[in-house]
Amino acid sequence: MTRRKIQIKKIDNTTARQVTFSKRRRGLFKKAQELSTLCDAEIALVVFSATGKLFEFTSSSVQQVIERHHLLSSDFDKLNHPSLELQSFCMSPLESSTSAALSKEIAEKTHELRKLRGEELQELNMKELQELEKLLGSGLRRVRDAKCEIVLKEITSLKWKGSQLMQENKRLKQMANRQVQTLELEQGQSSEPIGNFIHSNPSQDHDSSDTFLKLGLAFPSGI
Fold first, then answer.
1. Domain ranges of the chain
2. Is the pLDDT of residue 27 over 50?
3. Which CATH superfamily is domain 14-81 in?
4. Which is more confidently placed, 103 or 157?
5. What is the reported pTM?
6. What is the mean pLDDT of the chain?
7. From start to end residue, where is composition biased (Polar residues) (predicted)?
8. Torsions phi, psi of 218, nearest 5?
9. Residue 204 to residue 195: CA distance in whole angstroms
């Protein structure tokens, strides 16, 4: 029988959550101990429960492992992010001036973007605020024009779809009318021989009765 897969989400029941935490913590520490023993790995685990209680496991010393982690992380950051002084030293004069110009332009554009968002407006005077308002108004008009264009396209598309539906409805209605006319015509043709037979019988009965009257004979009992 296969085990039911447990859904990974927070356990609402406090007692069940504490029991699960205790079981899984012991299992985690056991796996860490096995990994350290089998692979001669230096491991440190630090766990805080929901109540704030500290649990830890280490193959040597938690403090020693943490210090080693900080040392390696610092060296790794230095390798991936060299200092600006080192970058400037390695660059040629042309590259250095180009980099400085790009950095200045990026800073200016970032500052302009913040002003467009309504940030850092305290340092602007009345004229600069009016220019910013004019720029925002122009941008707002372009946004509205683009929005109106999209709405008009959607309206045109809906009208076209409505026209297509009306034409399809008209075609189906004509088809239904033709089917009704065909059915009525077939029913009329099938009932015509019966009508002719009914209309022909009275004349035959009248002729036979006249014949018997002229001869002075009695009518047959079956007539």
1. 14-81, 83-123
2. yes
3. Transcription factor, MADS-box (3.40.1810.10)
4. 157
5. 0.34
6. 76
7. 189-203
8. -80, 150
9. 15
97: tokens are: 């001036």
126-215 helix and 93-116 helix, angle to the nearest 10 degrees: 60
Mean pLDDT to the nearest integer, 169-196? 79
CB 218 within 8 A of CB 212: yes
Residue 169 pLDDT grade (very low, low, confident, very high; cuts 50, 70, 90):
very high
**Cβ(208)–Cβ(223) below 8 Å:** yes
Cα-Cα-Cα-Cα torsion 77, 79, 84, 85, nearest 10 degrees, comes to 130
Q: Which of 51, 33, 52 is nearest to 41 (CA)?
A: 33
Q: What is the CA radius of gyration of the chain?
A: 49
Distance set, CA 203 to CA 46, 198, 199, 207 (Å): 118, 10, 8, 6
More confident residue, 77 or 43: 43
